[in-house]
Design a protein that fits this description.
The chain has two domains: 104 residues, Orthogonal Bundle (Arc Repressor Mutant, subunit A), CATH 1.10.10.10; 130 residues, Endonuclease Chain A (Endonuclease, Chain A), CATH 3.30.870.10. α2 packs across α4, α2 packs across α6 and α5 runs antiparallel to α6. It is globular. The chain has 250 residues and is α+β, with helices and mostly antiparallel strands.
Length: 250
Amino acid sequence: MDIEPFLESMGMSKNETKIYLLLLKIGSTTTGPIIKQTGIHNSKVYDGLNRLANKGLVTHTVIASTKHFKAVNPERLLDFLEEKKRSIGQQEKKIKEALPQLKALQGLGIDEAEAEIFQGWKGMETVFNEGINMMGRNDTWYVLGAYAGEDVKRTDQFITKVIKKCEQKKMKWKVLYNESARKTFRYEQASPITENRFLKQETPATINICRDVTFIALWIKNPLAFRIKNKKVADSFKAYFNVLWRLARP
């Protein structure tokens, strides 16, 4: 299957397609190798990376003050298609056919990064969907410092969508809210899969722990999430969560 024209038909530009496929192949890298291997002008490489990040297809880490970019799991393309499913039902079939080739390219890269940064609402979709996908029936997702952020309506709509997916998987949620969030997240707080308590303290970020993954979400106008894949880190945050859970109130 000729993947480049297909990705372009999904709404990715030629530059975005070249950058994304290269990142799948070589793994985490700075902009230098991207510019050299794609032949794209440096300003257009930065623009392409930013557009891919807003689509939830690329993340970056900062090492020694330098950004290193990495393509997310190609499974994210299925979520990207879901938003256009009514008009592009046939493309969903094609992307499933393309996944083995894309994963083969990804397998040529280096090991998965320990820490990653996701930006924008598309980035949030990626980090939450990947968290949901790794969880099993009756697994518990822990949330510390839940709050509505700067865009209350959009955050509430986003979390409602997340909880509905978790209800389908029959997962469990234990949520420690900031007191200011008591009158928000109505669907989440009423869901049968959630246990809810409240803290008087106000936290500027929300900490999510799912299995061995921890990510810190900043619910600003253009949200950010910092994800760490490390069992010791996740266990430490769970222990901290349990201490605060005993201090919190319904």
